[in-house]
Write a sequence for this structure.
C-alpha cells in the first residue's frame, strides 16, 4: 500500500515513527527537513499522486487545535478541530482536500502527545463547559487507524475527560480497535453517506454503503454512539428517490437511542478549490452540475439547495428528535 | 514528448542509436537530436550546472514543449559502495552549494531502486552514501518550471566508487554502461507515458474551442467561460450538436449566452 515514506529528520527517532516504519520494511525511506518541502511544493499533480500516494511522517509545531466553524457544531458552544493527518486514503470527487492541498501524499503528524496536551489546555481554559473536538476535517479519522494507532492513543484522553467529546468522522470500516475496547460515551463515530448510485459514481476506493452501514451497526451493537453525516448532499434529477431509499435503508436498521447526531449540508466549495478541481477532473460530471457563486463559494443554486435540504430534513426529522439534527444552512 | 538530457557525448551516444535520433542541424548552441515522429528529443549539455541549466532552457525555447512532457536526465554518477554499472532512479536531489533540495515524485513502480543524489560544483572522490554528479540539481531546478514533478526524473548509472574512482572512467566504459541499462530506461519511459497522457488529456482544450476562438471575439475572461461551458456541454448534452445550436450567433457573447441558457435548462443526472 505505502511504497515511499518521507521522514522529517526531527521525528526520525520518535517512537511512533519507528513503530510505523516497522510496518513497512520494504518502503523506500527518504529523509526531509520539513514536510512542506515535499507536500507544499508547486508543480506537482494531485490527480497523478493519488495513484500511489506516499506517507510523510512529520511533527506539527503550531496550530495544533483550532476553533471550528459554528455551522458544523453538533450541540456544543465550544468547538475545535485538529488534524493529526492531512489527506485521505479515499478518492471522493467532491472532497475539498483536492483543492486545498498541492499534494495527495498522506501527512501524519506523529506528535500526538502535543495535540493531547493542547486539548487538555483548552479544557482547562473552559472550566465546566462541554468542549467538542472534531478530528476528520483534513483526513478520514479511521481509514489509516491500523497504521496510525490514532484511536488507541486519543481515546484514553477522552475517557479521563468526560467534558470533552470527540467526533471521529469516517467512511471507513476500520473499527477493530474500537470494537476491542469498552465503548466511550463521549466519542461519536460519524459515518458519511451518499446514496448508493452517487457513491459509486463519486466515492472511489471507499467501502460501499452496505459495508459502512454494517460497521455502523456493529459499533452501535457494541454500545458506541454514532453520527450520520449527509454532507455533501449531491444533486441529481432523481435525488428525492435516491435519498429516500438511503434514509429508509439506514433508519430501518439503526438504533435511534445510540444515534448522537445527524447533520447535512449541500455540496459547496470555496471558488478557488472548485476551479482547481474542475481543472484536475475536466471530465467529471459533478463539476458540470447546476451551480451558482456566492461569497466566493460555488455550490448549487439557492432553489435546488433549499429544495434538497427541506426534502431531506423532512424525512430525517421523522426518525430522530429535533435536538439531534444539525442541518448546515450556509448560504452556499 | 520525452526530453532526455545527457552531459557527455559518450552518455548520449547509446541512446541516440537506440532511439534513432537524428541531429537537428538548425540548433547550434547545444546539440539537439530528435526522433522523426518528434516524440523523443535528446540534448547534449556539457558538464556542470551552468551548462545543464542553459541547455534545458535552450531546448525548451527551440522545441515546442508542453506541461505533459517527460523530462529525463540520464548519465553516470559516483557512489561510495554501489557496484559499477548498477542503475538508480533519484528520489531526492540536494545541491551541495546551498543545500537546496528537491524531491522527484516516483508515483509508479520504479524499474530500479531509488536513492539520494548530491550535485557538486567540482568533481570529488570523497564518496559517501549518496550518488554524486554535477548536473542534476540544475536540470531539476529548470525542468520543474516547465513540467510536473511526477514526470521529471534523473536516472544515474554508477561509473565510480571507492574501489574504482573517477580515474578509471573513460568514454568507452560509459557507453557500455549506458547501453547495458537501455532496457531500464525503456521501462522507465513506459511507466511515465501513461502519466504524461493523463496530464495531456486534462490540459487539452475542449472540442470546438480553438475554432470558436479564432472565428469570434472573446475577452480573456470570456475565453475561460467558453472553455468551461463547452466542457459542461460535452458532459451534459453529449448527443447534441453544439455547433448547430450556435450557428446563428454572431458574437462571442451571444455564443456564451446560448450555451449557458441551454445548459441551465437541461436536466442533470450525475450518473446514468
Amino acid at each position: 500500500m505505502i511504497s515511499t515514506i518521507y521522514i522529517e529528520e526531527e521525528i526520525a527517532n520518535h517512537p511512533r515513527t519507528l513503530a510505523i516504519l516497522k510496518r513497512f520494511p520494504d518502503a523506500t525511506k527518504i529523509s526531509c527537513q520539513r514536510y512542506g518541502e515535499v507536500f507544499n511544493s508547486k508543480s506537482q499533480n494531485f490527480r497523478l499522486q493519488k495513484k500511489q500516494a506516499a506517507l510523510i511522517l512529520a511533527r506539527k509545531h503550531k496550530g495544533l487545535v483550532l476553533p471550528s466553524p459554528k455551522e458544523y457544531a453538533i450541540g456544543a458552544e465550544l468547538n475545535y478541530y485538529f488534524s493529526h493527518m492531512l489527506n485521505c486514503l479515499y478518492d471522493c470527487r467532491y472532497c475539498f482536500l483536492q483543492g486545498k492541498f498541492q499534494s495527495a501524499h498522506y501527512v501524519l503528524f506523529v506528535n500526538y502527545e502535543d495535540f493531547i496536551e493542547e486539548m487538555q489546555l483548552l479544557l482547562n481554559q473552559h472550566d465546566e463547559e462541554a468542549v467538542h473536538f472534531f478530528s476528520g476535517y483534513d483526513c478520514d479519522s479511521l481509514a489509516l487507524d491500523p497504521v496510525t494507532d490514532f484511536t488507541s492513543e486519543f481515546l484514553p484522553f477522552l475517557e479521563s475527560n468526560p467534558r470533552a467529546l470527540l467526533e471521529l468522522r469516517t467512511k471507513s470500516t476500520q473499527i477493530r480497535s474500537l470494537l476491542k475496547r469498552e465503548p466511550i460515551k463521549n466519542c461519536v463515530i460519524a459515518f458519511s453517506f451518499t446514496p448508493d448510485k452517487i457513491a459509486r459514481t463519486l466515492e472511489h476506493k471507499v467501502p460501499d454503503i452496505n459495508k459502512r452501514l454494517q460497521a455502523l451497526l456493529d459499533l452501535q451493537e457494541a454500545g458506541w454512539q454514532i453520527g450520520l453525516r449527509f454532507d455533501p448532499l449531491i444533486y441529481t434529477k432523481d435525488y428525492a428517490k435516491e435519498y429516500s431509499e438511503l434514509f429508509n435503508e439506514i433508519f430501518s436498521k439503526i438504533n435511534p437511542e445510540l444515534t448522537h447526531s445527524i447533520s447535512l449540508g449541500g455540496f459547496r466549495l470555496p471558488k478557488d478549490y472548485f476551479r482547481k478541481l474542475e481543472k484536475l477532473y475536466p471530465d467529471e460530471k459533478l463539476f458540470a452540475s447546476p451551480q451558482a457563486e456566492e461569497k466566493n463559494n460555488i455550490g448549487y443554486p439557492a432553489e435546488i439547495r433549499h429544495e434538497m435540504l427541506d426534502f431531506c430534513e423532512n424525512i430525517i426529522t421523522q426518525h430522530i428528535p429535533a435536538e439531534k439534527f444539525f442541518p448546515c444552512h450556509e448560504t452556499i | 514528448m520525452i526530453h532526455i538530457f545527457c552531459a557527455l557525448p559518450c552518455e548520449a551516444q547509446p541512446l541516440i542509436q537506440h532511439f534513432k535520433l537524428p541531429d537537428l542541424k538548425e540548433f547550434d548552441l547545444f546539440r539537439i537530436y530528435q526522433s522523426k515522429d518528434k516524440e523523443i528529443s535528446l540534448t547534449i549539455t556539457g558538464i556542470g550546472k551552468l551548462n545543464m541549466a542553459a541547455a534545458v532552457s535552450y531546448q525548451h525555447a527551440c522545441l515546442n514543449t508542453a506541461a505533459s512532457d517527460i523530462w529525463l536526465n540520464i548519465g553516470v554518477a559516483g557512489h561510495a559502495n554501489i557496484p559499477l554499472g548498477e542503475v538508480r532512479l533519484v528520489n531526492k536531489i540536494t545541491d551541495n552549494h546551498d543545500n537546496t533540495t528537491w524531491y522527484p515524485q516516483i508515483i509508479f513502480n520504479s524499474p530500479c531502486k531509488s536513492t539520494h543524489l548530491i550535485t557538486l560544483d567540482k568533481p570529488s572522490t570523497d564518496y559517501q552514501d549518496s550518488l554524486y554528479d554535477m548536473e542534476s540539481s540544475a536540470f531539476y531546478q529548470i525542468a520543474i518550471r516547465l513540467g510536473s514533478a511526477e514526470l521529471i526524473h534523473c536516472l544515474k548509472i554508477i561509473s565510480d566508487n571507492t574501489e574504482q574512482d573517477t580515474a578509471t572512467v573513460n568514454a568507452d566504459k560509459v557507453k557500455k554502461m549506458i547501453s547495458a541499462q537501455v532496457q531500464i530506461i525503456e521501462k522507465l519511459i513506459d511507466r511515465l507515458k501513461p502519466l504524461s497522457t493523463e496530464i495531456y488529456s486534462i490540459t487539452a482544450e475542449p472540442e470546438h474551442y480553438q475554432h470558436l476562438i479564432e472565428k469570434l471575439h472573446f475577452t480573456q475572461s470570456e475565453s475561460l467561460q467558453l472553455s468551461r461551458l463547452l466542457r459542461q456541454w460535452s458532459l451534459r448534452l453529449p448527443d447534441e450538436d453544439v455547433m448547430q445550436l450556435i450557428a446563428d450567433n454572431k458574437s462571442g457573447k451571444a455564443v456564451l449566452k446560448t450555451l449557458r441558457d441551454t445548459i441551465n435548462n437541461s436536466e442533470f443526472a450525475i450518473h446514468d
